[in-house]
Amino acid sequence: MKKKIITSISAPAPIGPYSQAVMAGKLLFVSGQIALNAVTGQLVMSDIETETKQVMQNIEAILVEAGLNFGSIIKTTIFLKDMNNFAKVNEVYGSYFNGDFPARETVEVSKLPKDVNVEISVVAGE
Question: From residue 26, how far is each of 65, 84, 124 by CA, in Å?
């Protein structure tokens, strides 16, 4: 299967040896996104809602670069440092979809890159 690396200048550059996303066939695998602002390089962490919004904006930039949108998402994985933030994250996350929600799991983890509170990865398709 042929793969194509997808990179958006509107999303933060990877902070390790990985790509923002990889298109394999008709599927796009987006690496976990955190609340890094692509322009400033700074974390956006004033509150969990703002942090989640930045994560979703980063995902959107990568989707757009691949010619896709939130309606193209098949599956998401949400990693939370504190499951007590689930309702707030879920509210922001849900506002990016118009029904036909993707499959999803949400897991609490002990630590995330740069000590953020939320990281989200997605799989999307044409």
Answer: 14, 36, 8
Model pLDDT for residues 17-55, shown as the tens digit of each residue = 999 999 999 999 999 999 999 999 999 999 999 999 999
The structure tokens 């299967």 sit at 1
- The model carries a pTM of 0.96
Given a contact cutoff of 8 angstroms between Cβ atoms, the answer to whether 86 and 2 are in contact is: no
Q: What single DSSP character describes residue 38?
A: T
Nearest to 122 by CA among 17, 9, 31, 16: 31
- Whether the predicted pLDDT of 99 surpasses 90: no
In this structure, is the dihedral angle defined by the CA atoms of residues 40, 50, 14 and 72, taken in order, positive or negative?
A: negative
